[in-house]
Amino acid sequence: MRTTLWVLLLSGLLVPATVQADTLTFRFQGGTVVASDVLSNSGAPSELVEVSATGASNITIQGSLGTVEFSSGAWNDSTWSFDPGGSITITSNGAGGLPAGVLFSGTFTSAGTWTLISYANGTSEWVFESLVSGTASPELLAALGLPSDVSQFTATITIKINALTGIGTVEFGSIVSHTPEPGTLALLGVGLGGMAMARMRRLRNGKNK
Q1: What is the number of domains present in the chain?
Q2: Where are the strands (E) in 3-151, listed by range?
Q3: Which of 23, 87, 90, 127 is deepest in the core (most CB within 10 A)?
Q4: What tens digit of pLDDT does each residue of 26-45 get?
């Protein structure tokens, strides 16, 4: 019984309380988007309006912070999506205390879904979504108190577009880093909890014999 109590105590200590994962988020809007063989705003990039971090630090910087320029992979008629590829670059103008220059550079790594959202008032928008792999500048990560291995993101871009011309604008867009998997200590805690349960079952079965 004493052994069981120690295992239970250890499992409780090693399973951490809910911890907010480190997350880096870029938000942007505006610009001119052209939908043809690719989806691109390279002629008139969107405006970067927010950079935020949560987790070890909780920082939100808002304002006219720079530009977001993107170009998707090629349109694929058979899958009704944009192929992986293309690029996305986020550049800071130095406002809000952010380091000036390129804050993030990456590429779309999954098929970019292209979904029509219709509203009750008769208007509609298209939503582009894809996984993104890229690199955030070390200066930005250090300024926000984030780890240096942030590299996997999801991009979601809502576009109001004219179906006849294929030209529109970004209503709102975001690039958000992925939440990491649970750490080794959490998994170890679960394992020790299982050991404790097994130990109690054996003791209970022994008393019933």
Answers
A1: 1
A2: 23-35, 39-44, 46-54, 59-71, 75-76, 81-82, 85-92, 101-108, 112-118, 124-136
A3: 90
A4: 999 999 999 989 999 999 99
